[in-house]
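// run 5 | inverse folding | seed 20
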């Protein structure tokens, strides 16, 4: 896969850096990939390489406040900022590959971004895939606590409110690389992100019946960062009749970075293959 780095300027002036991986042969589709909170797109080089087997061009942004993109670290004022940035990247992809079918893949918080974007843009998409989607944050959250988080996220969005607990993978090398990566945010998650996730996901049970895209959700059963209950909620409410749910026994949060990653990525490629035009 040939990779190049580029950037665009968001509507509010924030510089959004993204990577594009192009397969060596014919292009059969475009896939946009959304990373999780605190990380960045270059952690998905190996994922893009596997997707290239299908002739997919992969675009992946560093979300605003993440990695190489502009903005205060992990600061989010409105969830719609993520969605607008994603829409702008899709516009770039469509200009560069106007006839290619569009696919969307999101991990963790990026899974919540991808899912909420797909609910508003599914007529433009061919299929949606999610990995450990962070869509359960409002499930079981006491209403007073959720209300407080929303207020803090609006008034002081940069206030650190919570930390991520648990390792991203059972592979010590992955954890060591993650901990040493200067582009990864290792501090607490600010209130703006917490508010964004709460507001974006609280009405998913009501919205999911309207989703009719082909959908794949992959999740580790031992994920200590994002509860698998969110994936079960998607399975329970989604309206699509083309849904595949893969729960991997004993795997941690980053199923694409577990010792079994070849199997997990193989499942993703196998699911996408019949949906990508030959």
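// decoded
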């Amino acid at each position: 896969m040939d990779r190049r780095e580029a950037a665009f300027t968001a509507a509010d002036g924030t510089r959004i850096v993204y990577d594009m991986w192009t397969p060596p042969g014919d292009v059969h589709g475009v896939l946009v990939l959304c990373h999780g909170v605190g990380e960045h797109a270059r952690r998905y080089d190996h994922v893009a390489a596997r997707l290239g087997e299908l002739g997919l061009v992969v675009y992946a942004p560093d979300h605003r406040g993440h990695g190489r993109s502009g903005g205060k670290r992990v600061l989010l004022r409105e969830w719609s900022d993520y969605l607008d940035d994603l829409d702008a990247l899709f516009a770039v992809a469509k200009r560069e590959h106007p006839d290619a079918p569009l696919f969307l893949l999101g991990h963790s918080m990026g899974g919540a971004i991808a899912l909420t974007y797909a609910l508003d843009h599914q007529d433009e998409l061919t299929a949606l895939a999610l990995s450990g989607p962070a869509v359960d944050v409002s499930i079981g959250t006491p209403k007073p606590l959720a209300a407080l988080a929303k207020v803090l996220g609006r008034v002081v969005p940069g206030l650190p409110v919570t930390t991520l607990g648990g390792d991203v993978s059972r592979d010590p090398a992955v954890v060591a690389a993650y901990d040493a990566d200067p582009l990864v945010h290792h501090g607490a998650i600010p209130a703006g992100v917490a508010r964004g996730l709460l507001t974006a996901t609280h009405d998913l049970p009501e919205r999911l019946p309207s989703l009719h895209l082909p959908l794949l959700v992959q999740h580790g059963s031992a994920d200590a960062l994002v509860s698998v209950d969110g994936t079960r909620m998607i399975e329970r409410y989604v309206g699509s009749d083309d849904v595949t749910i893969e729960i991997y026994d004993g795997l941690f949060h980053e199923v694409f970075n577990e010792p079994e990653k070849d199997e997990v990525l193989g499942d993703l490629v196998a699911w996408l293959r019949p949906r990508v035009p030959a």
